[in-house]
Design brief:
Layout (H helix, E strand, L loop, with lengths): L1 H8 L4 H28 L8 E3 L2 E3 L3 E3 L10 H6 L4 E7 L12 E4 L4 E4 L8 H14 L6 E6 L10 H12 L5 E5 L14 H16 L7 E5 L5 H13 L4 E4 L13 H7 L3 E4 L3 H15 L5 E4 L5 H9 L4 E4 L1 H6 L3 H10 L1
Helix pairs in contact: 4-5, 5-6, 7-9, 9-10, 10-12
Length: 345
C-alpha cells in the first residue's frame, strides 16, 4: 500500500511533500484518529526496551535529526512507534536555511541529497513547543534528543557561544543532546570537527552540564568522511572528556558508486547524501569506534537503515540504538514496527 502512495508522492517536490504528509498526519491525529494510527504502528507490545546513557527507550529505533527540526510533530511520530526522536538541528536564532530546492530524491540509489542549511525556528520557539509537549505528555515514553548547531552568520571562533545558548535553553526539555559539527551544508562547520575546536565546544558544555541538577547525556555527531586520524582524535577526546556517546554518522559529500547519472548529480549540485550508499561506511565507523573503545563510548548508529537486517547489522557492529531518516521516507510509517518485531523475534 505504501509503495503505491510513495510513487504518487515522489511525483512532487521532496520538501513540499514532507510537510504535506506530516501535516496530513497531524490533522488525522487532531480529528481523533491517533489511537487508530497507534494501534497499527505502536510497538508497546514488542519487548525491545533498551537502556542508553541511563535513559530507558521503549524500543531502539529512533528518528534522526532534520526530520522534525522544530518539534512540531512529536505527537504524530509517537503514534508511529518511534522509541526516540531527535529534534533539530536547532540554532540560537531562527534562520531560513539555503535557497530552495534543497532536498532531492535519488530513487535508483534509495538515497536523498539535502542542503537544507539548518533551517529552523530558533531555540526560543522550539523550547516553547517542547515545554508545551512536556506539559501535555507528562506520561509519554518518547525520548527527545536535542540536536544543536551554530547559526550560519556566527564565525567559527565564536561557535562555542551558539552551542552554549542552545544547550542552556533546551536543557530542561530534552532528554539528551547531540552536538552537530558534521553537516556539510553550513559553510565551514566541518572545520569544527578538528580536535582542538571540538575540545573547546564539548568541554565547555560538559562544564555547564555538571552544574545542572540533572545533567543530560552529551553526544557528538560525526561525518562519514572523517579520516582514520580524525576518528582516532574523536575517540581520544571522547574518552578524555568523558563524552556520553557518539552518533555515527551524518550525511556524506561523497558521490562514489551511485546509479544516478553524473548529469543528474550535477543538476542537483552540492549537499549531503544519505540513505543506502552511506550504509557500509557508517557500519565500518560504528564497528571501529566500538572496537577501539571497548564500548566505553556508546554509539547511536545512523546511515542506510531500511530493514531489520540493516538495523541488526548496526547493532552487531556495537551500536546500542539506531536512527532512521531516509529509510523512513522509502519504507514508510511501518518501518519502526517491522524492525522492532524482527529484533524481538
Amino acid at each position: 500500500m505504501y509503495k503505491i502512495l510513495r510513487n504518487i508522492l515522489f511525483l512532487f517536490p521532496a520538501e513540499g511533500v514532507h510537510y504535506f504528509a506530516m501535516n496530513c498526519l497531524k490533522l488525522l491525529c487532531k480529528l481523533g484518529f491517533k489511537k487508530l494510527i497507534a494501534a497499527g504502528y505502536s510497538t508497546n507490545d514488542i519487548k525491545t526496551s533498551t537502556t542508553f546513557c541511563g535513559l530507558e527507550f521503549k524500543n531502539p529505533v529512533g528518528l534522526g535529526a532534520g526530520f522534525d527540526k522544530n518539534a512540531k510533530y512529536l505527537n504524530e511520530l509517537e503514534a508511529l512507534g518511534f522509541g526516540f526522536v531527535e529534534i533539530g538541528t536547532v540554532t540560537p536564532l531562527p534562520q531560513a536555511g539555503n535557497d530552495k530546492p534543497r532536498l532531492f530524491r535519488l530513487p535508483q540509489d534509495k538515497a536523498l541529497i539535502n542542503r537544507m542549511g539548518f533551517n529552523n525556528d530558533g531555540v526560543r520557539m522550539v523550547t516553547h513547543r517542547l515545554k508545551e509537549w512536556k506539559e501535555r505528555k507528562n506520561k509519554s515514553q518518547l525520548i527527545i534528543g536535542g540536536n544543536i548547531g551554530k547559526n550560519k552568520i556566527t564565525p567559527n571562533e565564536e561557535a562555542w557561544k551558539d552551542y552554549e545558548i542552545c544547550f542552556k535553553e533546551l536543557h530542561p526539555y530534552v532528554d539528551y543532546f547531540v552536538v552537530n559539527v558534521s553537516s556539510p551544508n553550513t559553510p565551514g562547520l566541518r572545520e569544527l570537527q578538528e580536535k582542538e575546536s571540538l575540545r573547546k565546544i564539548l568541554s565547555h558544555l560538559q562544564t555547564i552540564n555538571a552544574t545542572q541538577n540533572q545533567p543530560k547525556p552529551l553526544l557528538l555527531k560525526i561525518a562519514p568522511d572523517l579520516t582514520q586520524e580524525q576518528i582516532d582524535d574523536v575517540i581520544d577526546l571522547g574518552l578524555e572528556i568523558k563524552l556520553d556517546g557518539l552518533v555515527a554518522t551524518n550525511t556524506t559529500i561523497s558521490r562514489d558508486n551511485l546509479q544516478t547519472t553524473q548529469h543528474q548529480l550535477q543538476t542537483i549540485g552540492a549537499g549531503g547524501l544519505s540513505g543506502l550508499p552511506v550504509k557500509q561506511r557508517s557500519t565500518e565507523i560504528v564497528r571501529y569506534i566500538c572496537t577501539q573503545t571497548k564500548g566505553k563510548i556508546p554509539v547511536i548508529a545512523s546511515g542506510g537503515i531500511f530493514t531489520a537486517a540493516d538495523a541488526k547489522e548496526k547493532l552487531e557492529a556495537g551500536a546500542i540504538l539506531v536512527q532512521v531518516w531516509t529509510g523512513f521516507i522509502y519504507e514508510g510509517p511501518g518501518i519502526v514496527k517491522k524492525i522492532s518485531k524482527t529484533l524481538n523475534a
